[in-house]
Amino acid sequence: MLRRALVPGFAAALLSLGAAPPSLRIAKWPPWLSIEFPVNPMDSASRGVAFYVRTMLRDGVSTLEDMSGTADGIVGGVHRSMPLEFATTNRPGVYSVRRSWPTDGTWVLRVSVKTTTALVALDRNGNVGSVRIPMEHMPGGTLPRAISQREVDSTLTELSKR
Known about the structure:
- The protein is 17% helix and 40% strand.
- The longest helix has 16 residues, at 2-17.
- It has 2 domains: 1-26, no CATH class; 31-160, no CATH class.
- Strands 4-3-7-8-9 form a 5-stranded antiparallel beta sheet, with helices on one face. Strands 1-2-6-5 form a 4-stranded antiparallel beta sheet, with no helix packed on it.
- By secondary structure, it is α+β, with helices and mostly antiparallel strands.
- It has 2 helices and 11 strands, in the order αβββββββββββα.
């Protein structure tokens, strides 16, 4: 138990002196998010919510202005794109997304908090099928990278084949 108490203090001292390994010297970590699905059907506040987005920032709590997103889909062979609508919840840093995209077609969602973006693929029923945050390996560690339109299009093409 004493060892546990000493190790974090020792690591903090190394970090402050710059003696930590390069992988631990990242001054700030990027914003992070996770997609919460399925929503709790017993919670009346969750009625009509497609999923929740939980955000984490190094300094402070995210705001609604930090959130952005689009729904990209193929409906009847035509590409469509529309903005996602985020709403605050009673939990700091957690936002709800209600379905604003059509029920027909194949859809992929881009959900962002500041510079971190998740690619959310929907299944045939319109539910969250998978979530991926593309990462880039850098000398100081692994960081989220931007999602290209090409990645969105290729994901849509792959999903529409299923």
